[in-house]
Automatic annotation (TrEMBL):
Alphabetized InterPro entries for the sequence: 2Fe-2S_ferredoxin-like_sf, 2Fe-2S_ferredoxin-type, 4Fe4S_Fe-S-bd, 4Fe4S_Fe_S_CS, Cytosolic_Fe-S_CAF, Fe_hydrogenase, Fe_hydrogenase_lsu_C, Fe_hydrogenase_ssu
One GO molecular-function entry: ferredoxin hydrogenase activity
Entry superkingdom: Bacteria
Keyword Transmembrane helix listed: no
Domain 2Fe-2S ferredoxin-type, chain residue ranges per copy: 1-78
Keywords: 2Fe-2S, 4Fe-4S, Iron, Iron-sulfur, Metal-binding, Oxidoreductase, Repeat
Domain 4Fe-4S His(Cys)3-ligated-type, first and last residues per copy: 78-117
SMART domains from the UniProt entry: Fe_hyd_SSU (SM00902), NADH-G_4Fe-4S_3 (SM00929)
Protein name per UniProt: NAD(P)-dependent iron-only hydrogenase catalytic subunit
Length: 574
């Protein structure tokens, strides 16, 4: 431990602390901009400068270690002026059209400018010419908004261990872009959107599909069906100032109905359907000597990662489409038939916590009888914007219920899909009963919950040993796959999600500022909301969902039937 003085307050902290951490410990708030805990601790923006007695220059507190007897000032005139001129310098080469910016009122640069009291930019300089890259279905990169903080670069490089983005060119011409300034659409980017989540400004954002959806809602000839992913209910409230991880299922449904969607369904129904298909696929592979370990296929970021980086595992992927794609396929066939609606006049919208889903839904394989399974994907953030555009007072909404006909039932197994380990737990609830040949009381597989990088378990089911593993985030996925490749580990079934934490922390979820991220693990808080919903549901096993049973009886036949294969399964690019 060391003792130091910050703004006349004596503080005792571990030796390993930075000044920023020590100040926080003492309840002193130092502004930051490029800093992102555990990801980007580089001292590049020099907004967190402090004055250290005896030192010649001001120091960046986010990287400067504490030492015994230090005397620090965080709020002297010199400090305030230096911070201000550093931010002014950033602003001098920034596209400052805040009023029309995607991050207006939700931008860390805007907040810091306001907090520092910046009123004019004294050195108005030449701006570099930039081009917006909006070629991909998922992500837009706008260099005119970029402040070169490096948060996205280090997230992609060190958290995801993918490394699509980097600093290119030098000096005044420096930009953050894929190598050779390629479009994101032409780079092996998986569209996980973790770079968007890390971005403090609007330099990286999702492709905006809101207008497309408004147009369909306004078209009286089109029957617009919306479905919401499990994780959306755990994030949407944050767009309206609710604490991280507040479960807003009922208000969300209410808002969707007010927005004018003709039908409001929960993707959870299709998550139950996925468990039926994937569970039986696994049983089939185990019983018939198929390719093992089988690996889950619901995370499109993970699928792209596998296709680009581990093509040798493509045969291990479950052939199941992801739940929202299955839902789309069922809406355009079974639902259309039962309700006597022309499938060509149905427009399916998926609200997802994910940016990669926008690209997934546009894959050529994702269709049924030549019609797209899903016609538009909006992120949780985009839904938040639609609700604001419609001037709906979200916080005052009464809870409402999803539509109940045909595809309205869902179980707790579907809800937990949105958290890491959830798909595995949901699958086990069904597979265990099939293998044991009886109903199992305890459905809580607590050993595979939580945010450890890699989770493993070995279960005895029906006298057989079933070995499973879970990885989330592509860095841990790579670690796990390398162990499988080298023969160090053998499993029957693996769950992989492209984002650390699973869908709850997908690239389409509401932005959380770096300041809040210093104290809160968003993965944990949002996952709680899903396990909470699981626990209060009466039905918690996918195969007990009555409407799923009916769907098989009336339409699909058995799990993995020919028809099920045609509508609900897919293939991958090697
Ligand atoms: Fe997910 Fe899934 S869990 S992939 O994270 O399998 O996006 O929430 O909707 O499709 O159900 C996302 C979440 C989501 C699908 C399901
Ligand atoms: Fe990297 Fe994911 Fe961003 Fe692509 S979307 S650049 S893979 S962080």
């Amino acid at each position: 431990k060391v003792t130091l003085t910050i703004d006349n307050i004596n503080v005792e902290v571990p030796k390993s602390y930075t000044i920023l951490q020590a100040a926080k410990h003492a309840g002193i708030d130092i502004p930051t901009l490029c800093f992102l805990k555990d990801v980007n601790e580089v001292g590049a923006c020099r907004v967190c400068l402090v004055e250290i007695e005896g030192a010649r220059a001001l120091q960046a507190s986010c990287v400067h270690p504490v030492s015994e007897g230090m005397v620090i000032k965080t709020n002297s005139k010199k400090v305030r002026e230096a911070r201000k001129s550093n931010v002014e310098l950033i602003l001098s080469n920034h596209n400052r059209e805040c009023l029309t910016c995607d991050r207006n009122r939700n931008c860390e640069l805007q907040s810091i400018s306001e907090e520092l009291g910046i009123r004019e930019i004294p050195f108005e300089g030449e701006k570099i010419e930039t081009i917006i890259d909006d070629k991909s279905f998922s992500i837009v990169r706008d260099p005119s908004k970029c402040i070169l903080c490096g948060r996205c670069v280090n997230t992609c490089k060190n958290v995801q261990k993918i490394g699509i983005l980097d600093f290119v060119n030098r000096g005044f011409d420096t930009q953050v872009a894929p190598a050779f300034e390629k479009s994101m659409a032409d780079a092996p980017c998986i569209y996980c959107g973790q770079c968007i989540v890390a971005c403090p400004v609007a330099a990286l954002r999702e492709k905006d599909d809101v207008e497309k959806v408004w147009d369909m809602i306004d078209n009286p000839d089109i029957h617009v069906v919306v479905q919401t992913a499990p994780a959306v209910r755990a994030g949407l409230g944050e767009c309206f100032g609710l604490p991280i991880g507040t479960r807003v299922t009922g208000k969300m449904v209410s808002a969707l109905k007010r927005l004018g969607f003709d039908k409001v369904y929960d993707t959870n129904f299709a998550a139950d359907l996925t468990i039926m298909e994937e569970g039986h696929e696994l049983l089939g592979r185990i019983q018939n000597g198929g390719k093992l370990p089988m690996i889950t296929s619901c995370s499109p970021g993970w699928i792209r990662y596998c296709e680009f980086n581990y093509p040798e595992f493509i045969e291990n992927l479950s052939t199941c489409k992801s739940p929202h794609q299955m839902m789309g396929a069922i809406i355009k066939t079974y639902y259309a038939e039962k309700h006597n609606v022309d499938p060509k006049k149905i427009f399916v919208v998926s609200i997802m916590p994910c940016t990669s889903k926008k690209t997934e839904s546009s894959r050529s394989e994702m269709n049924v009888n030549g019609l797209r399974d899903v016609d538009a994907v909006l992120t949780t953030r985009e839904l938040g914007k639609m609700i604001k555009q419609a001037r709906i007072n979200f916080l005052e909404l009464e809870d409402d219920k999803f539509d109940e006909d045909l595809l309205g039932d869902y179980t707790g197994a579907g809800v937990i899909f949105g958290a890491t380990g959830g798909v595995m737990e949901a699958a086990l609830r069904t597979v265990a009963e099939v293998l044991e040949g009886k109903s199992i009381e305890n459905v809580d597989y607590k050993e595979i919950r939580g945010i450890a990088d890699i989770k493993e378990a070995s279960l005895t089911l029906g006298g057989k040993e079933v070995r499973i593993a879970i990885a989330h985030g592509t860095a841990s996925a790579a670690k796990l796959l390398d162990m499988v490749k080298s023969g160090e580990r053998e499993y029957h079934f693996i769950e992989i999600m492209g984002c650390s934490g699973g869908c709850v922390t997908g690239g389409g979820q509401p932005h959380v500022s770096a300041k809040i991220l210093m104290d809160v693990d968003v993965r944990v808080e949002r996952a709680k909301a899903l396990y909470e919903e699981d626990a209060i549901l009466e039905l918690r096993k996918s195969h007990e969902n009555p409407q799923i049973k009916k769907l098989y009886d009336d339409f699909l036949g058995k799990p993995n039937s020919h028809k099920a294969h045609e509508l609900l399964h897919t293939h991958y690019a090697a």
